[in-house]
């Protein structure tokens, strides 16, 4: 049973490997993005030593690591699911003896694993040569960070699945997907760390799942969250992963009742 | 002149056709406009948040940076209204639609543009204009009678730059059919022209000014209206650079069309 799902990871990994040329330019794109934000933040800091508790070095490390973590957790599951619902191929997948959503998750993981090994690791090496960043010295920090981006992947994929399933209910799911993408980019802390938001926004964002995707692992990596707080951050991620299962189950149940495939 | 009239009539017909197909899916139109505005909103929120923590960005005030962003929205909105052939390689080269385009009398590039026009983007340009006017009055900038005329010339120049660069990029697929991933790369670099170029290091500044002149779709032309004329001729280079880049892009396209052999099969 498990080995079947692992095969989905393997197949997607190999599929991505076939198109790896795209990923070399991807590394350049991420390096350019990190570079642009690096200079922007340097200008924002100006003469200031620290802003919201970030030093310049911490900030550039945060920018670099949050973009690289994005490379791992990012996937297009929302678009894939949405397309399969629109073209009707979801019907075939549902009658197969596996859990459709779990298979999607595994495919996303295969993609993420590919990006981790061929994109994130070489990208991080390239970036650490170009920009002044400070990598954590404590091996424990590295381990916790990798556990945390695994949960980032889970939470982000769950949000993607939820958005993708929207295609069952809306004729045009594009708007929902765009909205989700912008919310994840803005509210997860890739573009601006949560600490920079105004106070009222921070208290709202603490109750949303987005910060668990980028901000928490990024903060652990830069050493802004230390000691017992690290476990709290991890706990928040676990809690969101569990909580998000509920809406997915509800939507999935409602969706299967609605499913109506034309032709075939 | 008759060729120009021919193009205008073609544009009118394609536009009528576009409206007919779109009006049957009215919600799509709205969704496209909203997604577009949300992307711009994201960037504006970034600017607002940043200025909560700093009074200036490399000597540029918040209102000035927002002003530049408004200008950027006008130029990029107007450009995408007429040109959004982002999937050119896949649709025209891989699927072979280019062969159909080439059998028709109008110029191949203008046909591709017409088939891919995206009128919802114009809303972004209008919002950009509103943002620009608002920050104009926040900054208390003087208004001269010639400013609207200059704005038209500058925006045209900026659009020419976009058109030249993206035409050349699309034309790459005439020379090589392998996906290069260069499209997203250029698209990312495009976004850096809307911040003051002084904040970048020399290499990126040089890149944005002379190699991929995206700084002319943002900071340089906008600084004319802001009266920030450290080098007074810099904004005026916008139309010049626009014409040069557009000619290069068109030349690259035309040469590519000559080389084009079809996808086979």
Automatic annotation (TrEMBL), chain A:
InterPro entries: ABC-2_transporter-like. The keyword Membrane applies. The chain crosses the membrane at residues 21-41, 53-73, 113-131, 143-170, 182-210, 230-252. Signal peptide: none annotated. It holds the Pfam family ABC2_membrane_6. The keyword Oxidoreductase does not apply. Keywords: Membrane, Transmembrane, Transmembrane helix. PANTHER family: SLR1174 PROTEIN, SLR1174 PROTEIN-RELATED. This is Daunorubicin ABC transporter permease. It comes from Cohnella terricola.
TrEMBL record, chain B:
InterPro entries: ABC-2_transporter-like (IPR010390). The keyword Membrane applies. Keywords: Membrane, Transmembrane, Transmembrane helix. The chain crosses the membrane at residues 29-54, 66-88, 122-143, 149-169, 206-226, 232-253. Pfam families: ABC2_membrane_6. The keyword Transmembrane applies. It comes from the Bacteria. This is ABC transporter permease. It comes from Cohnella terricola.
């Amino acid at each position: 049973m498990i080995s079947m799902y692992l095969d989905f990871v393997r197949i997607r990994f190999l599929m991505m490997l076939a198109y790896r040329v795209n990923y070399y330019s991807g590394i350049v794109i991420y390096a350019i993005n990190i570079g642009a934000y690096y200079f922007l933040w340097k200008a924002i800091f100006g003469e200031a030593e620290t802003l919201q508790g970030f030093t310049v070095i911490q900030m550039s490390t945060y920018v670099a690591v949050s973009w690289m973590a994005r490379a791992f957790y990012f996937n297009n599951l929302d678009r894939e699911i949405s397309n399969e619902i629109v073209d009707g191929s979801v019907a075939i997948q549902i009658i197969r003896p596996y859990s459709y959503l779990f298979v999607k998750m595994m495919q996303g993981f295969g993609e993420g694993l590919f990006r981790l090994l061929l994109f994130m690791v070489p990208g991080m090496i390239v970036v650490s040569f170009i920009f002044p960043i400070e990598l954590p010295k404590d091996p424990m920090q590295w381990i916790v960070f990798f556990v945390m981006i695994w949960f980032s992947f889970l939470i982000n994929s769950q949000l993607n699945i939820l958005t993708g399933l929207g295609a069952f209910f809306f004729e045009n799911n594009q708007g929902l997907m765009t909205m989700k993408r912008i919310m994840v980019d803005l509210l997860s802390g890739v573009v601006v760390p949560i600490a920079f938001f105004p106070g009222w926004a921070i208290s709202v964002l603490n109750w949303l799942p987005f910060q668990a995707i980028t901000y928490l692992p990024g903060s652990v990596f830069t050493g802004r969250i230390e000691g017992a707080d690290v476990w709290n951050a991890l706990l928040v991620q676990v809690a969101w992963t569990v909580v998000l299962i509920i809406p997915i189950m509800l939507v999935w149940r409602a969706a299967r009742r609605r499913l109506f495939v034309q032709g075939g | 002149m008759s060729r120009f009239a021919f193009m205008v009539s073609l544009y009118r017909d394609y536009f009528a056709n576009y409206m007919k197909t779109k009006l049957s899916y009215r919600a799509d139109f709205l969704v496209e406009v909203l997604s577009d505005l949300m992307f711009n909103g994201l960037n504006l929120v970034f600017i607002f948040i940043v200025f909560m923590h700093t009074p200036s960005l490399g000597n540029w005030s918040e209102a000035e940076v927002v002003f530049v962003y408004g200008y950027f929205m006008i130029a990029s909105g107007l450009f995408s209204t007429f040109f959004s052939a982002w999937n050119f390689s896949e649709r025209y080269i891989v699927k072979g639609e280019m062969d159909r385009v080439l059998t028709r009398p109008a110029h191949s590039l203008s046909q591709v543009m017409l088939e891919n026009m995206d009128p919802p983007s114009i809303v972004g340009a209008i919002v950009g204009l509103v943002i620009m006017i608002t920050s104009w009055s926040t900054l208390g900038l003087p208004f001269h009678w010639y400013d609207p005329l200059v704005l038209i010339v500058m925006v045209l120049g900026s659009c020419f730059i976009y058109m030249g660069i993206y035409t050349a990029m699309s034309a790459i697929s005439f020379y090589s059919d392998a996906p290069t991933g260069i499209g997203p790369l250029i698209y990312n670099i495009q976004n850096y022209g809307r911040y003051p170029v002084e904040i970048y290091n020399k290499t990126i500044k040089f890149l944005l000014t002379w190699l991929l002149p995206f700084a002319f779709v943002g900071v340089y032309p906008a600084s004319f209206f802001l009266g920030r004329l450290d080098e007074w001729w810099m904004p005026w280079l916008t139309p010049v650079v626009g014409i040069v880049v557009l000619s290069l892009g068109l030349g690259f396209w035309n040469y590519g069309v000559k080389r084009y052999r079809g996808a086979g099969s």
